[in-house]
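Batch job 17 of 40 flagged for manual review because the log was empty.
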Amino acid sequence: MPETSNHDDPAWQVVKVNDGRSLQVLDYVDGLRDLQDGVLRAIGPAEERFAEDYLRMLRAVRFASRFGFSIESRTAAAIRAHARYLGQISRERIGAELRAMLTGPRPAQSLTLLEQLNLDGPTLHEYHRQSNLKRVQALTELLRDYALANPTISWMTWLMAWVLDRHLPLEETQVADVAALRIAVEHWLATAGNQQLSRLGKALVLTNDDLQVWRDGFKVLPLALGWNELRMAAKKRALASPGWSIAWVLTQTMTHACPSLQRWQAQVEQEISELSKDGLAPIPLVNGDDLIALGRKPGPVFRRLLEQAYDLQLEGQLQSRTQALDWLASQ
């Protein structure tokens, strides 16, 4: 770009091109060395730069993660000192920055930096806490090892893994016991999960689609962890539900580091493959019109009977419409 004035003001001039012919780079603040060293540094007094717009603290995290850079120590110290002021920024802007981080190339680095720089609390509108990020790191390893069938992970999956790491840390006694994991998840969802969703929805200005992804994923997660206890119909219903893919990814982040649970995971995946061959969500053989034709009056019993009929269909006990109608008539 054309040469401009103000080159004595390092707050504005970092690296620029002299003119369109020579393409000479004029670096007044040693920015090229920072680029070579992989360091992100505020130009001039970091406190002043962040005070101009506190959202720059989140942008520092996003750009450091995007390029795999570290944040220079004085810049990092200034972020920690001013982290509490992030709350002065609109929640829409904060939510947009977090989404950009978690759709970038290094979501785990972004989340690590947010906690290290005390930005996690004001970002999520809760207290600061340093978590072990085991699920987040496991998700990174799963992607790196191509252990996931679909390498594209939504930003909500990263957010849900982070929330679990912060509010439901994996204890050593739970890691090797899938039943204990299921109980812990069910308890958290019953006591805090819904409140967490409501608060995060406001803190990050989540869309209705985002909120539905959260609800669907966490609804199915206990079913994934309790797979061995499910009947065939319940397994097929879970697999056909919109939350299964995220729930199974989150399950893998919990089993990734435990050999015994990896064997369990392999067995489940083999069973999933077999169940999928027969179809997971066939068209129901009967419906409410059939119940009315049989002389039944519409009411709550309709739903119960149709659900039972569909379960029997999923389990192969009702294989034709005639069989299904005969079963309804006998109820």
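Reviewer: the log was empty due to a logging misconfiguration, but the result itself is present. Confidence is low (pLDDT under 50) at residues 1-18. Unflagging and moving on to job 18.
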